[in-house]
Amino acid sequence: MERLAAGPARPGEDKPVNVFGHSPLKVVSIGAGMLLTAFIAVLLFLIVSHPSPENLIASMLSTEIQFAITLSLITSVVSTVLCIIIAVPAAYGLARYEFPGKSVVNTALDMPLALPPLVAGVGLLLFFGTSPFGKGLAEAGLVFVFTPLGIIAAQFFVNMPFMIRIMRSTFESISPRYEYVAKTLGCTDLQAVWRVTLPMAASGFFAGAVITWAKGIGEFGAALLLAGATRMVTETLPISLFLNMSCGNLNMAISAATILIAISICSLYVFERYGGSARF
Amino acid sequence: MLRIEHVSKDMGEFLLKDVSLQVSQGEYVVIIGPTGAGKTILVETVAGIYPPDAGRVLLNGRDITHEEPRNRNISMVYQDYMLFPHLSVHDNIAFGLRNRQLEKPEIERRVEESADLLGISHLLHRRPDTLSGGEQQRAAIARAIVMEPSVLLLDEPLSALDGRTREALRKELRRLHDTMDITVLHITHNFEEVFSLADRVAVMNRGEIVQDGAPDEVFRKPNCEFIADFVGVENLFKGMCRLDNGNAIIETGDLSLVSTTCTREGEVFVSVRPEDIMVSRTKPEISAQNVFAGTVTESVNNGIVMRAVVDAGIPFVVTLTRQAYQDLDIKKGDSIYLLFKAASVHVF
Questions:
Q1: Pick from B167, B199, B231: which residue ends a domain?
Q2: Total domain count for chain B?
Q3: Residues of B with CB under 8 A from a CB of A
Q4: CA separation for the pair B94, B142 (Å, rounded)
Q5: How far is residue B157's CA from residue B141's CA, in Å, rounded to a whole number?
Q6: Residue A10 resides in a domain
Q7: Average pLDDT of span B333-340
Q8: Do A42 and A137 reside in the same domain of the chain?
Q9: The predicted structure's pLDDT at residue A1
């Protein structure tokens, strides 16, 4: 009688639940995942717990870190907005239309993903430093080499594929028939996209923007080559981490790292939580 | 009036080949054909989503072949509703009226009116994804008819719905058409929709319209093997149905057929499968409800089975096994009796 009443609450009594079962494959594969998770957690904990909390807070409030935070925020927001402006229409075109050379364009746009950022940085440096176009821009007052503008250009170039990939998969998941219906209901092509497809793509759009922004904040290699690492001039959070680490100023370096970790965790959470069907 | 003149369109996987079709003002035309026949491209071309490679589309005498969809006054409803998920049912229905920049009270009045017409007034504040399939399709139809379109295009509007909902919405479409006098071009692969809705039917296969005409004509006199195979309806008759003591009596020609499958009065189509009809030399003594005397006018050897046409006032096709045919010794011109159960008389 007693057992019957308690039955559903204690299923383990009748049938012992063994998470790992008896399959070696299950044990090994789940074990590998667990091990990696533990490793990541240990790394993050080591960084965050290294300085004392007082030192951490003092470093974060220092002029240098404050400058790095501000510069990182401004450059990453601007480069994200630029990515949105260019990548959203490009992704729409790739998702909706067939055109000759489409697969080449698709591959080329994914190229910066595979390219080491340092190599991208060399290319950007040559483009802005030595090409007639880059020189023309410099003469017009838009100097990219060793300036914060260079940081924006580097972030834009390296992170644009993320925005394109996420938006492309989002647009592909929305049937064009929604637009067809909108057009029969009085919309122009552009209005149909603006009033129907974009609102339906909102979650992918949001996820893409968050990932692009978070990647932008962390961008180091390409920015280092194009914009350089000048203290209090082109010192973003990752550059600050690099500069302070190289001259042994561990507290400052780790406070920059801690902020970057916090941003990564938050943006990943937001992406997973609100990203809907968006994938990259 | 909608006129499609020699329209061709090659979309690779699907195509239209020299399609011509006319839908008169207030007419309900159903296009029926198998999957991949090019039916959806045809309606999308009429709606102006793609320009045709060749041919013209005329609406009330105006050439709209290259007119933008928004300037055609043609509304479209798809099988999978295509309600905008980020808008409430109300805002979905109001979507087109707002594009036309009508006055707010006018928009409200018309949204309520069409929601009322489709029985979804209580759902106006809801999001589409909280509705059942039938409710979503009603909302999509309301969104289309609120525009008072010159032509309403329906692309398999009932195919995603379950049996009872489909039946209910089918009646609703007929009622809407009758009360609002809308011109409808409806696509389906389900021939029951043809009988209950169509004034005229066009059969489409591989991008071509292979036959069009009144439903009973097309189904009774298919002009090619494809239609005969595809629709596969023989012994199809048009009649008037009245209900009498739980049975339905269908008057067709000089005959009164008794059916147990009919639940409504009025004009209906009935069909009796040839293999459900039994044949007797002498007047049968059993109490089958449908017994008719007739004359054999035709008999054809189909290999395993024999097909005979028996004129009993209206011509019935019957099929018999070779053995039965030989035992009965049926010849052209013989008088025989036909009998079939009331349950075998299918009503559409």
A1: B231
A2: 2
A3: 44, 47-49, 68-70, 72, 74-76, 78, 80, 82, 84-86, 95-96, 99-100, 143, 147
A4: 10
A5: 9
A6: no
A7: 88
A8: no
A9: 37
Average pLDDT, whole number, for chain B? Answer: 87
Same-domain pairing of A43 and A163: no
Same structural domain, A57 and A26: no
Q: Is residue A234 part of a domain?
A: yes
Query: DSSP label at B36?
Result: T
Name A121's Cβ contacts closer than 8 Å, sequence gap at least 6.
A154, A221, A222, A223, A224, A225, A226
What share of chain A has pLDDT > 70, as a percent? 90
| Res B336 pLDDT > 80 | yes
ipTM above 0.85, yes or no: no
pLDDT of residue A3 exceeding 50, the answer is no
Nearest CA in chain B to A200: B86
CA distance B282 to B201: 41
**For residue A221, is it within any domain?**
yes
Instruction: Kindly list the residues from chain B whose CB atom is less than 8 angstroms away from the CB atom of residue A199.
Output: 84, 86
Contact status, residue A278 vs residue A207, Cβ threshold 8 Å = yes
Which of B231, B253, B278 is at the close of a domain? B231
From B152, which residue of chain A is nearest by alpha-carbon distance?
A184
- Domain limits at A27? 21-50
For the ranges B102-116, B134-148, B196-210, B277-291, the lowest mean pLDDT is seen at B277-291
State whether A98 and A30 are in the same domain: no
Same domain, B24 and B121: yes
Which residues in chain A are contacts of B76 at CB distance < 8 A? 180-181, 184
Region of poorest pLDDT, from A120-124, B10-14, B282-286: B282-286
For residue B78, the chain A residues in CB contact (below 8 A) are: 177, 181
* pLDDT of residue A11 exceeding 50: no
Contact at CB, A182 and B147, closer than 8 angstroms: no
B-chain residue closest to A182, CA distance:
B96
| Domain ranges, residue B73 | 2-231
Cβ <8 Å between A185 and B99: yes
Q: What is the pTM of this model?
A: 0.78
Say if residues A125 and A145 touch (Cβ distance below 8 Å).
yes
Please indicate, yes or no, if residue A9 is contained in any of the structural domains. Answer: no
